[in-house]
Design brief:
single chain; alpha+beta; 24% helix; hydrolase activity; three-stranded antiparallel β-sheet
């Protein structure tokens, strides 16, 4: 299982990271460690990849299954509590992106996660993808 946090700024933009390993733009996140609970993993992943500590609780905005990789990801809309955006070991670049920029920068499977979080509809979205495109 993995988690991702979509940090939204006061202008309604989402913070995206450009991954160092593949150059792709995505929301910050990653796989839970064995003994970790979901909110802790979310806070750890966002902090590691962006330098931002998020406020908890965060709002669940979607559940996404990668049909190829067999990974389920929980995505949350987050508020920054502290810190300054900065790159890290896994992050090549950071960017505050509008809805239009999210769709231009990220693969469909990741853009929809960010857009769902920006919309923060209730109940949360439930979607499937092949790693790139929605199915």
């Amino acid at each position: 299982m993995s988690v991702a946090g979509v940090v939204i700024d006061t202008r309604g933009r989402a913070l995206l990271i450009q991954r160092r390993d593949n150059g792709k733009w995505e929301p910050p996140g990653g796989v839970l460690e064995r003994e970790e609970i979901i909110p802790e993993a979310l806070q750890r992943e966002v902090l590691e990849e962006t330098g931002i500590k998020i406020a908890l609780p965060a709002t669940l905005t979607g559940v996404y299954k990668n049909m190829t990789g067999l990974i389920v990801s929980l995505v949350f809309r987050c508020e920054a509590a502290d810190g300054t955006p900065t790159t890290g070991d896994e992050t090549r670049a950071l960017r505050w992106a509008t809805r239009e920029e999210v769709s231009e920068l990220a693969d469909e499977a990741y853009a929809i996660r960010v857009l769902d979080a920006m919309d923060a509809a209730s109940p949360p979205a439930i979607r499937a993808h092949d790693g790139v495109k929605l199915v």
